[in-house]
User: What shape does this take?
Amino acid sequence: MARGILRGGLAGGLLAVAFSILGVIPIFGFFAFPLRILAWAFGGYLAARLAIGAGVRTGGVAAGMVAGVMAGLMDGVANIALAPLAFKLADGQIEGLILLPQPIIDFFLSMGVDISQMNTVGGSIFFATLFCGGAWLFGGIVGMLGGGVAQALAE
Assistant: This one.
């Protein structure tokens, strides 16, 4: 089961990283995010299928969750590494910062941080790190769904 989790997590993670690299190009960023979510689900599905193929009758959902966490973490770390390049190619990120929900903008303002001052390479790395913190959690949930599909198809 561990081998299936590792293979599924690496496959989903590498696919998600490839889509993250594609997402650095500003016009493709809109399409890259849903493809990354599908890559996390694919990692969970693959991990569960490999675990089931190895003789594990139950646990496809758990295998998918762990593989999804791995894929989400790999994707998040890749986004941190790609954040300065994405910032330079997009010629800043102030347009994206203005589109943040008002409670988030108010949170930064209450801390004394002007949102327009986050329009730097450091700000893009900061937001990529925040995304990484949520990507592995969301990746686990999506991978668990992929593992559940594989478990259901095996029965």
Observations:
- The radius of gyration is 18 Å.
- The chain is about 80% helix and 0% strand.
- Residues 17 and 82 are 10 Å apart (CA to CA).
